[in-house]
Amino acid sequence: MKLGTRGSRLAQWQAEWVRSRLSARGVNAEIVLIETRGDAEIDRPLHELEGKGFFTKEIEDALLARRIDVAVHSLKDLPTQLPAGLALAVVPERHDAREALVGGIRLADLPVGARVGTSSLRRVTQVRYLRPDLQVVPLRGNVPTRVRKVENGDGCDAALLALAGLERLSLADRATPVDPLEVMPAPGQGALGLEVRSDDRATQAALLPLGDAASAQAVAAERALLAALGGGCQAPVAAWVAERRLFGRVTASDGAVQHTASAKIDPQRPEAAGEAVARLLEADGAASLLAR
Length: 292
Hints:
- The structure is a single chain.
- This protein is an alpha/beta fold.
- It folds into three domains: 1-94 and 190-211, D-Maltodextrin-Binding Protein, domain 2, CATH 3.40.190.10; 99-177, Periplasmic binding protein-like II (D-Maltodextrin-Binding Protein, domain 2); 212-292, Porphobilinogen deaminase, C-terminal domain (Double Stranded RNA Binding Domain).
- Helices cover 33% and strands 21% of the residues.
- The protein has ten helices and 13 strands.
- A five-stranded mixed β-sheet has the order 2-1-3-10-4, with helices on both faces. A five-stranded mixed β-sheet has the order 7-6-8-5-9.
- Strand 6 (115-117), helix 4 and strand 7 form a beta-alpha-beta unit.
- Helix 8 packs parallel to helix 9 (271-284).
- The longest helix has 16 residues, at 9-24.
- The radius of gyration is 18 Å and the shape is globular.
């Protein structure tokens, strides 16, 4: 079995995790590295690039061309609408979905005018809402590079990153977890998505033991929220699941307005919670914020 993934250290860690789990079940697999557009175009923030699937399209192309059998994605990078012929086979047990602050303990404690690095529009808008006095500056690169830039004061004093990525690369001691109702994560953050060809029953069966029902339910609700709002992976849409309740958030690009709503998740139909939260947010005016 061939596992396709990006070439970053984090992506390779994730693919190796999948490979080792398959190996433990007697399935031999090899990792195939694939460069994506998002990896190649690092000179500007992702939300300024046109299109979708910056970190997934080339891997999906390889999957459709049968050069690989499984695409290993960070689920937050995977668009909610998959190409014809592809399917999300399983979602393994999710890692911690929270954000983490590198270079500080809390956003509230950062000095006035401090530079906070991120290239995620979702993070940009929430930081502007919480601390309009801070400078939000572009920060691209793989996880270790971004951590190093903060520690060296290279263009920024602090940065927001996904806690899951830091922990997977043994860098969590460089950061402090952030309250998810303060800075809400991206839909699917902390989870992996294993994508396959829809007609490849053998591969789907081999991956099935790696799936986790609770994680799949949570991310299904979050991704349904994103889909219902018509937002792409780079839209300022945030989501968080706690105690079978979905929280969703949309923040204006200048941070002036923020809408948050929630709904209970039905384990039998988790997507309904995403659709319900989307309707609540739209009733508050979230659609106009996304249209801007």
